[in-house]
Amino acid sequence: MAEENDIRDMARRFFDAIEAGDIETMRSSFAPDAEIWHNTDEQIVTRDQTAQTLTGMVARIKDRKYADRQLTAFPGGFVQQHVLTGVRVHDDVAVRLPCAIICTVENGRITRLDEYFDSAHVAEFRKFANA
Fold it and tell me: Are 102 and 79 in contact (CB under 8 A)?
């Protein structure tokens, strides 16, 4: 139970950091050799690549919130379902991205994160990414 509480607390800090735009806290939540897999492109990326992507997202999406968090911790990891909401900076359009995340956790850090998004929602969320 203590391990599950620690994992639950770490998961909350991880998502709270992204909401706040605190990329370094998010990055340090990962083990150095963590793998992050995306269902939309079936690619595995590193924590540094993820930090770079989220830095861009933080710059383009304001008022970020992980709404409707449904977090379940278990020995060795957690699952969270949520809706990431925000407002695009360049045109003030609200966006939302339903998601499910499955994480493996060892020694208090995420070693594997699998994220599941609907590709249509991703396209709208990333619309005008270069604006």
Answer: yes
